[in-house]
Write a structure and sequence with these properties.
Number of strands: 13
Mean pLDDT: 96
Low-confidence stretches: none
Distance between the termini: 45 Å
Shape: globular
């Protein structure tokens, strides 16, 4: 039996309590975007990786370099993982990134690593979709609220097996890059930055929704690598995520990752982050 609680006499008073930001603006030292912009001026492309539709690839970015995720043929969403290139146990922490910044990321936001390191891994330096803002449905782009499409949830909901989910693509990409078996790689694959994906929560039932991405060929999201990075990117089987995911029904396109070497003399005094200095008290 479903029990629906009756509102208490002071319900309106309880609801009217003003919210408090958990991590107020100004709590973090902001990155020097003007210095990064200066370093970008003379940067040179040194590598690129093409991620095929419904597939994944890994790429390496040295500390102090920039990388872009670029739409090249048609509207396409990408699921991004980041690892410390020298230690797979340090990886992108989407939940803490969301709490420190916002549900959807853009220029000036940083991608933070998991504990105990908890430091910036990458800083967003350019976003050609920053104009989108928040639409009438409450949707916005580049979210850290969703996870990644995966074969386990697909099995749970549909009873079928699908092998090109972003989770699977990222596992295979990491497996290939590091010479690991699928099951060895899988624990290192983690919640993602949903690059170019347009998402939000419905106003009535507060359910996670997706809608057609506004991305078009030539759009990109650019990052500055704060540490040596190994990245993993999946070209989502949902294409632009306008209808479905985890199927072969959607039109899908490749994505391109470009790596750039900047003017390193400009960044000679950049405060590259060390691992978090907190030391626990042993019980």
């Amino acid at each position: 039996m479903t029990v629906i609680a009756s509102a208490p006499a002071d319900a309106d008073q309880r609801r009217s309590v003003k919210p408090v930001l958990v991590y107020p603006n100004g709590s973090l030292t902001p990155p020097d975007l003007s210095l990064l912009a200066e370093a970008r001026k003379g940067m040179e492309k040194i590598d690129e990786v093409i991620v095929p539709p419904r597939d994944g690839r890994c790429f390496s970015v040295p500390k102090g370099h920039f990388f872009r995720i670029v739409s090249i043929e048609g509207p396409q969403v990408g699921d991004l993982n980041l690892w410390n290139a020298h230690d797979l146990n340090e990886r992108f922490f989407s939940g803490k990134t969301r709490a420190l910044h916002a549900t959807h990321l853009s220029v000036g936001h940083r991608l933070w690593s998991n504990m105990p390191s908890l430091r910036p891994m990458a800083t967003i330096t350019a976003d050609t979709l920053s104009w989108y803002g928040v639409d009438d449905d409450g949707g916005s782009v580049h979210d850290v609220i969703g996870t990644r499409c995966d074969p386990y949830t697909n099995k749970l909901l549909t009873g079928g097996d699908y092998h090109h989910c972003c989770h699977s693509n990222l596992c295979n990409a990491l497996s290939s890059a590091k010479g690991l078996g699928f099951r060895e790689a899988e624990p290192h694959v983690h919640d993602v930055l949903n690059v170019f994906m347009c998402t939000g929560f419905t106003r009535d039932t507060h359910q996670y929704f997706m809608k057609a991405s506004p991305v078009r060929p030539g759009d990109y999201l650019e990052f500055f690598a704060e540490i040596d990075l190994l990245g993993g990117l999946s070209a989502c089987p949902g294409g632009d995520c306008s209808t479905s995911h985890s199927s072969d029904a959607a039109a899908c396109h490749p994505l391109k990752v470009e790596i750039f070497r900047p003017d390193r003399a400009v960044l000679k005094d950049w405060p590259f982050p060390e691992r978090n200095a907190y030391m626990p008290v042993e019980a």
